[in-house]
Design a protein that fits this description.
It is a single chain. The protein has about 325 residues and is an alpha/beta fold. It has 2 domains: about 20-135, no CATH class; about 140-305, 3-Layer(aba) Sandwich (Rossmann fold). The chain has 11 helices and 13 strands. The chain has helices at about 1-10, 70-85, 85-95, 100-110, 115-125, 130-140, 145-150, 170-175, 190-200, 235-245, 275-285, and strands at about 40-45, 50-55, 60, 65, 160-165, 180-185, 205-210, 220-230, 250-260, 265, 270, 285-295, 300-305. The strands form 2 sheets. It has an 11-stranded mixed sheet with strand order 1-2-3-4-7-6-5-8-9-13-12, with helices on both faces. Strands 10-11 form a two-stranded antiparallel sheet. Strand 10 (about 265) and strand 11 (about 270) form a beta hairpin. The longest helix is centred in the N-terminal third of the chain and has 12 residues, at about 70-85. Residues about 1-25 have low confidence and may be disordered.
Length: about 325
């Protein structure tokens, strides 16, 4: 565990070292539209990005971020991809409040390099939620973060891994060192931009999408899904787990790290759930290796595997 923490500090010290010219574009074939359920194919490629299409919409892909929402920002970004400037496309998708747009424009100037912690400090000065920024700065010492780093050691080289609700992607370096195919979903384009600049390497496809709407992958495509500090925020927990089950192959594994146990709303928009309910849901969805263990008096984590997966990684 000491090694994990040491390497974690190393990751945090990185400053915009991602080479954007080497993104892995060969992994779109597992993706599908959330609305029409049809595969996504590349319609158009320009120097600033790509346009992906299905049978119902056109989605922009820029700076290694695939924006899978059917809204006016997506349509505007698709037009801009044909015309040119990457920074404008990203700002169109992020749509920040006026004050917050100032540090983001600065951030997009490629000649300016800034340390992750200083960038968060800058955001805080321009109306970014300071409590959230403080949480992100200290996140690598959280139990949930360390547990997820531990889970990453069960990823094998051929795995297709999905981080559900990746936020700013602080865990992605630990997943991508184990395998070439890493996907990460979050609802916030700004979080994904931060992920892209500081944590996500060229092998990682970032997807902006609402996970409550489903997962944009074809059936049985993924081998491992990991979700950290997210499960309590899902309103439709069974529907979400059903989607996870659908996108996992027949021996796929699910890690839910740090969910709040109990009943009802515990704070803000966090919805607790009893561990027995999670166990029942997973059994209904044909997960047959299920381990649920407490993280503290009011939180727990889950390892579950589908069909015939007899190896219990926690024992
Ligand atoms: Zn569609």
């Amino acid at each position: 565990m000491v090694n994990y923490i040491a390497s974690s500090s190393f990751v945090n010290a990185n400053i915009r070292t991602i080479d954007k010219r080497k993104y892995n574009h060969a992994v779109f074939n597992g993706l599908r539209c959330l609305y029409c359920k049809k595969p996504l194919t590349i319609l158009y490629t320009s120097s600033t990005g790509k346009v992906l299409t299905c049978s119902c919409f056109r989605y922009p892909y820029v700076d290694g971020i695939l924006y899978l929402k059917r809204d006016s920002a997506a349509s505007a970004a698709v037009k801009l991809i044909k015309q040119g400037e990457e920074d404008k496309i990203l700002m169109t998708l992020i749509r920040p409040r006026f004050l917050l747009s100032i540090p983001i424009w600065l951030f997009l100037i490629k000649s300016i390099h800034i340390h992750f912690n200083y960038f968060l400090l800058l955001l805080r000065c321009f109306s970014y939620d300071w409590k959230w920024a403080r949480y992100l700065t200290k996140r690598e010492t959280d139990t949930s973060f360390i547990l997820s780093m531990f889970c990453s050691k069960f990823i094998k080289s051929g795995d297709k891994v999905l981080d559900i609700g990746c936020g700013i992607g602080q865990l992605l370096p630990y997943y991508s060192t184990q395998t070439k195919a890493v996907y990460a979903i979050d609802n916030s384009p700004l979080s994904l931009l931060i992920a892209r600049r500081f944590f996500a390497d060229k092998k990682t496809i970032l997807i902006c999408s609402d996970i409550e709407r489903g997962l944009p992958f074809r059936d049985g495509y993924l081998t491992i899904t990991i979700t950290t500090d997210v499960f309590q925020y899902l309103r439709r927990k069974f529907a979400s787990l059903r989607e996870v089950s659908r996108v996992l192959y027949n021996k796929g594994q699910l890690f839910i790290i740090h969910a709040i146990s109990g009943k009802g709303v515990v704070y803000g928009n966090a919805h607790a759930i009893k561990t027995k309910s999670v166990d029942t849901m997973l059994k209904k969805l044909k997960f047959n290796t299920i381990t649920i263990f407490p993280n503290s008096h009011d939180s727990f984590s889950v390892f579950a595997a589908k069909n015939n997966h007899t190896k219990n990684v926690w024992l």
